[in-house]
Amino acid sequence: MTPEAGPGLSSETFEGSQELADRGATAPVELGREAGSVLRLPEGTGVDPSDIDVEYPDDETMIINMGPQHPSTHGVLRLMMELDGETVLRTKPIIGYLHTGMEKTGEELTYQQGATNVTRMDYLSPLNNELVFSLATEKLLGIELPPRAVWIRMLLSELQRVSSHLMWLATNGMDVGSTTMMIFGFRERELVLAFFEKTTGLRMNHNFIRPGGTAADLPDGWEDDVEAILDNVTARLASYDELLTGQPIFRERMEGVGSLSADEALALSATGPILRSTGVAWDLRRMMPYLAYDDVVFDVIVGTYGDNFDRYAIRLNEIRESVRILRQVLEKMPAGDYRVQDKKVTPPPRARIDESMEALIHHFKIFTEGFKVPEGEVYVAVESPRGELGCYIVSDGSSKPHRLHIRAPSFVNLQSLPVMMHGGLVADAVATISSVDPVMGEVDR
Amino acid sequence: MTAPTPSHQLDQLEPVLAGVARAASPDGHRIVFPERDAYHDVVAAHRSAGFEMLADLTAVDYLGHPGRTLPAGVAPERFELVVALLSVSQRRRVRVRVQVPEVDAVVPSLWDLYRGAEAMEREAFDMFGIWFTGHPDLTRILMPEDWEGHPLRKDFGVGRVPVQFKEAPGPR
Questions:
Q1: The complex's ipTM?
Q2: N or C of chain A: less Cβ packing under 10 Å?
Q3: Shortest distance, CA B37 to any CA of chain A (angstroms)
Q4: Partners of residue A390 on adjacent β-strands
Q5: Is the pTM of the predicted complex or chain greater than 0.80?
């Protein structure tokens, strides 16, 4: 409304056009706070307030919020993005929406119960979480596992990798617009989950790998089940190649998008397929072997450009490598016990409880107060489908950990997201988020 | 893959680690216990000696712990900062453990050496209230911004929901 519009009234109240003051009107301190604490440059360089106006005039950029309830952010991930038109300049991932204090909970649970807690962190590969927790506990206890327990763990861990990568292929396909891939991925993953249900009793959150071994032996006829899964998955990987790998539209969306250099990936502590996509052949299964990965033959899949397509190709081919490992596990699975027969760590067999008073006491002690772990601290890392999954336990000699810390690969890998998205399009941001493969349960813990 | 680091790069660690207490972890990796003042220099020396990656950074609250094994010359404090460094080229790990006192819980940030320290230090700040000087954006990361206290400290209580039983005799 202009001052001339009405008699008297408006001319008295008019205070100039109602527009945002220009950036210069804001004090440099305030500007710096806004730039520093709201959004960071992806390279992580400190922001000089005087640079901001020069580089990105504020009338051309806008800050837009994506998530936490956006369907393509794979859970409750929220991103604040600074956009110049369609181009993403800076990004800040905001996390914590799923934080439930699992590390604090871990201090309240005995080592016996601890696996039920950690298994809920990375809900797409729960067995790896149980594995790293059990390995750390066993290292503190100083116990050696019977070979069959080791190989059962390896079997489950690799099957888990297959199912996790299939799930990723499914959601990634969905994010770039292929609903067919989503159905395919979930269909194949179902085969693996059905086997897990048969073996552990649950499709997810198994609590099957425990300190001292596993909860039970593999079910009768497991060889045939695994064989069937492997044949099925191998055959269908070929159809994924047909559907996605060679398809021009898919390649157009993935190639050269969200690229990352090897130096950046190392500096940002990125591990797993993200690090390998940049050409660094770092796989803990090969470089710092745990379980019996020394005894199986497999290749570490490495990319070249560090873009979304490389990460896709790495995950697809890691399924093939896992299948290769699983075939060797089928061949070499040793006979014997599935857990260590140490009365202080694992409960005695059910039959013994009826005939031995001592066994009954051990059983009672383990299930009431748990087993005691010697004082000390240990860091153990395994290669989860998402990268280095570490477990740091501080024991004070009691039956509960004094401190339980999980180095979650998704949590750390999310830091490389702003670098990957810098200079890309908003539409590609969705594909890039997907290629990081974050699992929010593990990010927020 | 980067070429294996020549041995002279490892040698340059020695002068920095001269007065620093050391131990070996059960799996053969080295643990170093620098003083808080030397912490940043020790990590910087490892950085230039081929430890390209900061694998993990976390803290531990030792309040209520009956006593940990520390090498001679290291005085225990309430908090301990635990930094796991990883050398991709040499396939080695080193763990750096720094004692941080309860009052004046301030340590230098590793962000200028490893960009990946950003989120991990924010988590340690959020959960333990350890202040990292030089960090670009030291704000809460997992807890809400207006949260009071630092949940992983041992004197921060675990939340409980009181359970009521129908037949309970009632409070005495």
A1: 0.85
A2: N
A3: 24
A4: A381, A407
A5: yes
